[in-house]
């Protein structure tokens, strides 16, 4: 049971970092897109 | 004399019929119920859940209580609390509906402005898996105490998230649901006592005084709307079993952020959340019957639950310290402790600790960002466990 728990621990922590990392990456892209649109709108003004 | 005896039998027959040992256990559970009510009212410890749980514990531990199912003359008489349990907890509905309300309450703004804070939320779920490992170690040497499924349900105390704990405990059909929930909600209320010594243990005064620059907090509305959709898709693809947990939380948040459903959002945050909370607390007490609750395993679970919170805190702080080895602009490692899902208590604790070390150091926005990230991480952790640990 201990080996199984260690496997779960490894995959679990890895999985959370992977998912949260992906969400952070997508959010950063969205924020960058928003910032680019902002500067384009300010340049037009 | 005969009349007196018949009168006594009518009034106290149920007590006289139960064995003396059962009566003692019944009294102990009444005491525990009263203690939970006292903690809820006098100490303001998670009153929304501890008060109904405490009162429910008294109701279900009355001899031959009509509040729960009872066998009488070979016929099952259904009790209302047992019916509510079947209607809302056995089928996982109550915690999921509560998540809609919780999602509608959360402002993810500080997190959306600084997405890397999500990683601290991930790190602070370490306590869940470490506790799962420790419970599994107990089960390895004493299989009669914990199965792997019990270990998973005990580990999820570290999620510091009631609905996730209820969801998993019920999914794995653990006999320890009552103890797990009492541990989870009690320790959530004790975060201001548990976290500070853990943080001080793994940080130096110099680290605690690291100043964080002011955070930008402006987030475009379409980013706020995209966020719950992105999270639901990503989490659902990687951990399909988390789709319900994450999806309901994110649906609540979408109701809040869409801007066109103000009345639904308000209903979710107030009426819906309050209604489900009332029913949830009372119903969960079905699992606090003396025979299931008064066991040595309950004490063990209380101890493991404390471990879970401690290692959540230490995991988040150590991750921040690890990042500081590579970053030019250092992070105050205390904010790593906010990755625990106890919102907003944890971020207030860290903010206060930061001010104590340096009255000019305002950590609240950073801490709040990490704290709400922890909410998402804890739900995803629950979903991952559902995928990794099969049902018995």
Question: Can you characterise this structure?
Answer:
The complex is a heterodimer of chains A (45) and B (392). With 45 residues, chain A is mainly alpha-helical. In chain A, 96% of the residues lie in helices and 0% in strands. Chain A has one domain (1-39). Chain A contains one helix and no strands. The longest helix of chain A is centred in the middle third of the chain and has 43 residues, at 2-44. The model of chain A has no long low-confidence stretch (mean pLDDT 87). Chain B has 392 residues and is mostly helical. Chain B is built from 20 helices and two strands. Chain B starts with a helix and ends with a helix. Chain A binds chain B through residues 1-2, 4-9, 11-13, 15-28, 30-31, 34, and chain B through 112-113, 115-116, 118-119, 121-123, 125-126, 128-130, 132-133, 136-137, 139-140, 143, 148, 151-152, 219-220, 222-223, 226-227, 230-231, 234-235, 238-239, 373, 376-377, 380-381, 384-385, 388-389.
Count of folded domains of chain B: 1
Strands of chain A, count? 0
Roughly how much helix do the residues of chain B carry, as a percent range? over 70%
H/E element sequence of chain B = HHHEEHHHHHHHHHHHHHHHHH
Class by SSE composition of chain A: mainly alpha
**Integer average pLDDT of chain B:** 89
The outline of chain B comes out as globular
Quick one: which chains have the greatest interface? Answer: A-B, 28 and 45 residues
Number of beta-strand segments of chain B: 2
Give the distance, in angstroms, between the N- and C-terminal Cα atoms of chain A: 65 Å
- The number of distinct structural domains of chain A comes to 1
Residues in helices of chain A, as a percent range: over 70%
Spatial ordering of strands, largest sheet of chain B: 1-2
* Helix and strand pattern of chain A: H
Profile the largest sheet of chain B. Answer: 2 strands, antiparallel
Low-confidence stretches of chain A: none
Question: Proportion of β residues of chain A?
Answer: under 5%
In one word, what is the shape of chain A? rod-shaped
Radius of gyration of chain A: 19 Å
